[in-house]
Design a protein that fits this description.
By secondary structure, this protein is of the alpha/beta class. The protein has one domain: Amidase signature (AS) enzymes. It has an eleven-stranded mixed sheet, with helices on both faces. Strand 7, helix 8 and strand 8 form a beta-alpha-beta unit. Helix 9 packs across helix 11. The radius of gyration is 21 Å and the shape is globular. The mean pLDDT is 95.
């Protein structure tokens, strides 16, 4: 499988391959490798017929649509009409989507061919894809390790060579962390730039869909197609919502040193410092910044997110869609359906969210966390007056072994650099900055670039310059 959209489009134009041949290869790889990796929950054989139609279009009209014939995998919490949409949960095991999510409609119109639905942590709750009701997903680079989560299936699908592009969702790092663990590019846009219509809501004020790819240019193209105002989603924004963020020849990067002082693997930190040295050698300025509230984002996140989960998952009650357990009365139906349908992590977060929203604790917990979010945004706005980009490792460690993180707090801390981005709504890009060796295997680690609101184009331009055009 060719690794990038550019390579595919060039091959189609030159006639060195056909769309049918590429999609056939994609399906073959998906089925063969899925037995060991479990990246896909469903593989769509009807993609071959779509490929044949795309070949006819290519012959008659040329390569006009930007994604014509590009095979894409989609996280299974995003709706594709007529396909299963499970959220990797037993409660939606047999549910079929009745409409396309807005981003799916846009990708379809651009010529994309959807080859399968990818595994995830149940309802996107987790950072290892070990919480799926349909089995764990393994990292293609080392089958004993996690691909990250919650978009672990999407990351694994790209890393195992089944597709050049997969779509994930990011509520607290769920695109960027698996991209880092699997050696990919991952992009989380400014909140509101991409429609959430047709995405299963986890944390409505944080969720955003984005691409996992092998190049920043591909991520930029996919993002440009998915982005835009949507009348079905009142939280989407227009391009003029934020002042333009100019693209420059040299940039000032800010490093929150206090953030890196503990918990970062020594080998990861060494590679990060090498990346900092590279930036300086290319003429960029790197300074230290102080982000005390940003550094406390994890605590606020694990109050805000469970609260929103508790609210969003109330709809799964056995009455409207999905699993319905029999009961003698309405309350019993609710209780039995949710007890049988939800996994342990989902139940844990619902309980915590219900607690922090209760009348006796709302102000002490949820209200305070929301006030912290406001202060975090103000803190970032001040910092971005003196720096162009905030720089951190994407994750504090490389991919860990499946079953290794038994301490839930330690697992949650894997998101320490990513969750503040979602709480504040700013964009962030990750791409590989090097590898560390563990048990004879070279494991990738990513660097995270965080930009100001509306700074999506700048981050993608920087990524192309520093990753796609690296020597």
């Amino acid at each position: 499988m060719l690794k990038t959209i550019t390579e595919l489009k060039t091959a189609y134009t030159k006639g060195t391959t056909t769309i049918e041949a590429v999609v056939s290869e994609s399906l073959k790889i998906s089925k063969e490798k899925n037995q060991d990796i479990n990246a896909f929950l469903d593989i769509y054989d009807d993609a071959l017929e779509r490929a044949r139609l795309a070949d006819k279009e290519l012959t008659n009209e040329g390569n006009k649509r930007p994604l014509l014939g590009v095979p894409i995998a989609v996280k299974n919490n995003i709706l594709l009409k007529g396909k299963r949409a499970t959220g990797a949960s037993k409660i939606l095991e047999s549910y079929q989507a009745t409409y396309d999510a807005t981003i799916i409609a846009k990708l379809r119109a651009a010529g994309a061919i959807f080859v399968g639905a990818t595994n995830l942590d149940e309802f996107a709750m987790g950072g290892s894809t070990e919480n799926s009701a349909f089995g764990v997903t393994r990292n293609p680079l080392d089958l004993s390790r996690t691909p990250g989560g919650s978009s672990g299936g999407s990351a694994a699908a790209v890393a195992m060579g089944a597709v050049p592009v997969a779509i994930g969702t990011d509520t607290g790092g769920s695109i960027r962390q698996p991209a880092s663990f699997c050696g990919l590019v991952g992009f989380k846009p400014t909140y509101g730039v991409v429609s959430r219509y047709g995405l299963m809501a986890m944390g409505s004020s944080l969720d955003q869909a984005g691409p996992l790819t092998n190049s920043v240019a591909d991520a930029e193209l996919i993002h440009s197609i998915m982005a835009g105002n949507d009348t079905y989603d009142a939280t989407t924004i227009t391009p003029d919502t934020y002042a333009p963020v100019p693209i420059k020849k040299s940039y000032t990067f800010g490093i929150p040193r206090g953030f890196l002082s503990s918990g970062v693997d020594a080998d990861v930190l060494k590679i990060f410092e090498a990346h900092v040295a590279l930036l300086r050698s290319l003429g960029h300025q790197v300074i230290e910044v102080d982000l005390p509230l940003f550094e406390q984002g994890l605590a606020a996140y694990y109050i805000v997110v469970p609260a929103e989960i508790s609210s969003n998952l109330a709809r799964y009650d056995g009455m409207r869609y999905g699993l319905a357990a029999a009961g003698d009365n309405l309350l019993e139906v609710y209780e039995k359906t949710r007890a049988a349908g939800f996994g342990p992590e989902v139940k844990r977060r619902i309980l915590l969210g219900t607690y922090v929203l209760s009348s006796g604790y709302y102000d002490a917990y949820y209200g305070k966390a929301e006030r912290v979010r406001v202060l975090m945004r103000e803190e970032l706005a001040t910092i971005f007056k003196s720096v162009d980009v905030i720089l951190t490792p994407t994750t504090p460690t490389p991919a860990f072994r499946l079953g290794e993180q038994e301490d839930l707090l330690a697992l949650y801390k894997q998101d320490i650099f990513t969750v503040p981005v979602n709480l504040t709504g700013v964009p962030a890009l990750t791409f590989p900055m090097g590898t560390v060796e563990r048990d004879g295997v070279k494991l990738p680690v990513g660097v995270q670039y965080v930009g100001p609101h509306g700074g999506d184009t700048r981050l993608l331009s920087l990524g192309k310059l520093l990753y796609d055009n690296r020597q």
